[in-house]
Amino acid sequence: MDMRISLELELKDKPGQLVNALEPISRLGGNIVSVVHIREEIKGERVPVHVIFDVDNHGRLEKILKELEERDVLISKVGEEKKKERISIMLIGHVVDTDLKDTLDRINELGAKVVDLDLEMPHPEKESSAKMNIEISEDIMKKKVFEVIEKIAEEKNLLVIKSLEA
Amino acid sequence: MEELKVQLVGFGVIGQGFAKVLLRKQNMLTEKYGLKIKVVSISDISGTAIDEKGIDLKKALKVMEEKRAIIHYPNAKEIKAIEAIESLDADVVVEATPSNIKTGEPGLSHMLKAMENGKHVVTSNKGPLALKFKELKETAEKNNVEFRFEASVGGAMPIINLARETLPGDKILAIQGILNGTTNYILTRMTKEEIPLDIVLKEAQEMGIAETDPTYDIEGIDTASKLVILANALLGIDVTYKDVKVEGIRRITPEAIRLAKKDNQVIKLIGEVRNSKIEVAPRLVPENHPLNVDGVLNVAMLECDIAGKITIIGKGAGAIETNSAILSDIINIWRNCR
């Protein structure tokens, strides 16, 4: 899975320095998302630059960092931002009566986050519908989230409607 | 002029549609291909009309309109389809009896018998394929005849021939699609009008879009059968109807549809096959997604290893439209045999 890397670089305030720093990133397989000069924080002769890029494995990242060092680019900070994915899921049935809090807790327990819940309850005796947006950060977790939801649905007799990519 | 002798088995909606399409297309077939398709027998549950010189299709259709059984065709005999397949001389058997997902019969026996007698088989009948695809395919190979079933999935939508003949260099990795027009019509109406399923269903029954017993459609059984055919024919996965995880649209409510709509999504009954799964279930589909087609339309997205994703949309049912697929299969058989 893609990693999103946040790099803080310090570049000499001379022409050509930015290209010198960015070229190896894209050549070695990084996909540059954003580049910001932080001119207000100029340290001596160097200008801080914040680069964000996606790369698909650690090996590539190591190569990029090595080449930046060889090119005399100062790296002041390397960070990995967890890439978050949002999945939509709908549950139909007696969603509230079957302990909605328990349903949410069991999803949140996995480290996923139910960030949004929209509920329609036509009549106390009729089945209601709940649509959730769940934020997840890794592929493995996604599978687990679906497993737990399927299990909850079976226990509580709920119909699960997954999105197309699920 | 070349002649191709066809036996028609099953003379209901699809079978009569075949007769109508042949009447309409005979001149074109002659002019364009130098081909005459001659129907030498028509069987239904009442018996078999036989004419080696070619059945008068107009007359046969008139008999059905007036008396509703082929036995009233001049000199028709009380012999069963299976005997007609065994005893008469023909090149192709068009099997268009009603689909039976429990036993596959009588279609299954008709198809096997035709193959064993050296006759090519063209069919719109899903049941036998969803249950015994492997056996049918192997029997066809053993007897050196062609087995074609474009009409069994997606009506006029040419998904099987598209994958097999137009994309022979690609590997099909997965298919997602809407393979049942009735449920798609119901969900579309529910989405547009925000009315409950049972009301839309009644309306669909009155319009002839849904059958009196809508179980096959509503519970996803029809979609599952078609998915099995695609899994076998296009992905080479040896599965039968029993392997499919099936959930229909019975529990879909207007409220659920409204919630989806708020997020620019719709709910569709999607069949999906890839090597690890074969499943029919309602799914959330983004409004701007190619699979979001309305009304009775069918749609399928093929994920190919070279071509990437290819989507086709077409009419999934209809007596005339489905016969576009049957006719294509017959013409292709004729071409391959020359």
Describe this structure as you would to a colleague.
The complex is a heterodimer of chains A (166) and B (338). Chain A contains 4 helices and 8 strands, in the order βαββαββαββαβ. With 166 residues, chain A is α+β, with helices and mostly antiparallel strands. Chain A is elongated, with a radius of gyration of 23 Å. Chain A starts with a strand and ends with a strand. A 6-stranded mixed sheet of chain B has the order 3-2-1-4-5-6, sandwiched between helices. Chain B has a 6-stranded mixed sheet with strand order 8-10-9-7-11-12. By secondary structure, chain B is an alpha/beta fold. Chain B has 2 domains: 173 residues, Rossmann fold; 150 residues, Dihydrodipicolinate Reductase, domain 2 (2-Layer Sandwich), CATH 3.30.360.10. In chain B, α4 packs parallel to α5 and α7 packs across α8. Chain B is globular. Chains A and B meet through β5, β7 and β8 of A and α11, β9 and β10 of B.
The tally of strands of chain A reads 8
Output the radius of gyration of chain B. Answer: 20 Å
The coarse silhouette of chain A is elongated
CATH homology-level superfamily of the largest domain in chain B = NAD(P)-binding Rossmann-like Domain
CATH fold type of the largest domain in chain B: Rossmann fold
Beta strand % of chain B: 15-25%
Distance between the termini of chain A: 16 Å
Reported CATH architecture of the largest domain in chain B:
3-Layer(aba) Sandwich
Structural class of chain B: alpha/beta
Shape of chain B: globular
Tell me which protein chains meet in the greatest interface and how many residues each side has. Answer: A-B, 21 and 23 residues
pLDDT < 50 stretches of chain B: none
Number of helices of chain A: 4
**Biggest sheet architecture of chain B:** 6 strands, mixed
How big is the Rg of chain A? 23 Å
Query: What is the highest CATH level, the class of the largest domain in chain B?
Result: Alpha Beta
